[in-house]
Amino acid sequence: MNLSANYMGISLKNPLVASASPLTYTLDGVRRLAASGVGAIVMHSLFEEELVSDAEHQARLLEAGSESFAESLSYFPDTLAPKASKHYLGLLERAVNAVEVPVIASLNGATPGGWTTHARDMENAGATAIELNIHMIPVGPGIDGRGVEDLHVEILQQVKAVVSVPIAIKLSPYFSSVGEMASRLDKAGADGIVLFSRFMHPRIDPESLEVIPSVGLSDPAESRLPQTWVALLYGRLEATIVAAGGVEQADDVVSYILAGADAVMTASALLRHGPGYAENLLDGLARWMARKGFDALDQVRGMLAVQSSSDETTWERTQYVDALRAANANLQGPW
User: Fold this and answer.
1) Residue 317 burial class via C-beta count within 10 angstroms: exposed 0-12, middle 13-18, buried 19 and up
2) Which of 40, 166, 206, 311 could form a disulfide with 8 if both were Cys (CB 3.0 to 4.6 A apart)?
3) Which residues does the UniProt record annotate as the domain Dihydroorotate dehydrogenase catalytic (predicted)?
4) What domains lie within the chain, and their CATH numbers?
5) Judging by beta carbons within 10 Å of its beta carbon (0-12, 13-18, 19+), is residue 328 exposed, middle or buried?
6) Which of 139, 130, 113 lies closest to 20 in space, CA to CA?
7) DSSP characters for 135-200?
8) What whole-number distance in Å separates Cα of residue 108 and Cα of residue 333?
């Protein structure tokens, strides 16, 4: 059975990618993921807030020292890499050397500053590719939507200009036109489009009268939105398409590939069941292919995608109406 896949020009032994999660905070976790058989590993994100905090702290130290000693700058190394960055790059380099599967670095931020420097450092540390997770929700009423879109393109172009490894954009589902945004990023040089990033919304606790940070694992129902967009974008982009969210069973992996995904990411299932659960997902995929008479993923990929000759709006509207009709029929009863 040939499960090999291609992600941004990177050859993978299979389409299952372990996405960013707490499992990649340690070298042992990275090794366990690799041993489970995944095709690639995305490291946890290096956050802009960590870098800004470290930089501000170092700036205060330098300012205080320079006021006291004329030659105080000689006490500091030439390269003042923030602590968070040094730790991340060290772990990334050890991970790349410890496992044989591709290791993809991840940057999570909201502004253009600093992306290029840290992307270059990640490439130098051995990252096979870099995933840009641009976490920006235009929550203020005065924030222009087109400006947010332009910012994504600007960040991508800046990073592409200074590194040679493939660059993926992990896209938000909250654009007014996801298809047009994906197309703009594709034309701007994105090597991969990941659909979609998950936002960890806080909850309001009526007893403590506090806003509580809340992180929940995904469930299979969450796969429907990215699955729809994978099917709509298949064959319309030069960039490879990666599905993310809601993978719990092998059938979820199969469905994404039928929709047209080049690779499928999972984190929640591996956190819920342990890294070794990847073997279950891959075994289930292989068994399904054998049962259906397929020998390679290329025979499966995009079978249920929206054909390029189809009208996407009509297709989506038809699915919407059919779903409502089916729901109404199922809910009819003696009442």
Assistant:
1) exposed
2) 166
3) 4-289
4) 5-308 (3.20.20.70)
5) exposed
6) 130
7) -----STT--HHHHHHHHHHHHHHHHTT--S-EEEEE-S-SS-HHHHHHHHHHTT-SEEEE-----
8) 49
